[in-house]
Amino acid sequence: MTNRKNLVVVGNGMVGHKFLELMVQKDVSQQWNLVTFCEETRVAYDRVNLSGYFSGKTAADLTLVEPGYYQDNNVEIHIGDRVVAIDRDNKTVTSANGVEISYDKLILATGSYPFVPPIKGNDGPGTFVYRTIEDLENMEAWGKQSKVGVVVGGGLLGLECANALKSMGLETHVVEFAPRLMPVQIDEVGGEVLKEKIEALGVKVHISKSTTNIVSEIGKLVKMEFADGAELSTDMIVFSAGIRTRDNLARECNLAIGERGGIVVNDNCVTSDPDIYAIGECALYNGRIFGLVAPGYTMAEVASDSITKVGAQTFTGADMSTKLKL
Description:
It is built from eight helices and 21 strands. It is of the alpha/beta class.
C-alpha cells in the first residue's frame, strides 16, 4: 500500500484551481492526497471576465470547474471555509470551521483583496468593490434603484467595471486620481486616446481628481466631494483602485514578507520555508507582485513541476501586457 503525502492548497481562485488541474494532469494520485480550501461559497470561476455577468453570463457560465471534477479526481475540497492558521512546526493548517489537516507540502494561493482608498464615507450605503460574484449581485440589486454610478479608479478593471455600470443603464462616471487613465500601462498620449474612446462609449471621465468625502443622507448615497472643491452627485460608487496582496497567513507564521507586502518566493515559487510555496497575486518575486492571471498560471506550472519533479520550469518574471475587453 502506498503511503500518500498531503498536498494542501490554500485558496481556490483561478490560480489555485490551475495548480490542482496541473497536478491532476500529472496523475499524482498514487503519491499525493490533494486538499483545497475555498473561502467563497462557490468553486473557482473566471474573475477576469466578471463584466460578462452584466451582459447575461451566469455564475454557472463563469465557473472554471466542471460539475464533479474534484470528486472524480479525488480532490478533497472545503467550500465556504478559509484557513486561519498555519503551524509550521507541526505542519498543519487550521480552518475557520475547525478543520485541522496536516501537510507535507503547502501551496498558498490566497490572492489579493481590493484596495479601498481611505476616504471619509467610503463604507456608506451604495459603496461596493468589484471582486466577487457576490459583489456583482449586490451591485446589480442596488443599481436597479439608482440612476448614476461612479467607479473610483481608471485602471484596467475600473474601466471594465464602468462598462458594466453602463450596461446596467446607469449614467456612468470614472474618477481617477492620476492625470490619465490606466497610468501603469500607458503614457500620456495613449491616455488621451483611451480617454476619448471611453467617453465615446458614453462614460464620463474625470482625471486628476482626489476624492475627499463621500456624503450619504438618510441611508442613501448623495454625492462625492473633491479636493478642488468640485462635487459629483451619485447613487452608487464602486471602488476599483488596485489590489493589496493577501499575505496575512504567511506573516502570522513568520514566512519572509516583502517590505511592502507579498510572500517572498524564489525561482521555484518556494517561500522561506522549503515545504511551502506561494503562487499568484500573494507571491512576491524579485520585489514584484504580478497582478494578472497569466503570470499566476505560470507560477502554478512552476510549483507543480518543482513538487512532482516532472518538468523543470522556473519562474523568471512575466509579460505584463494585457487586453482591455470593452
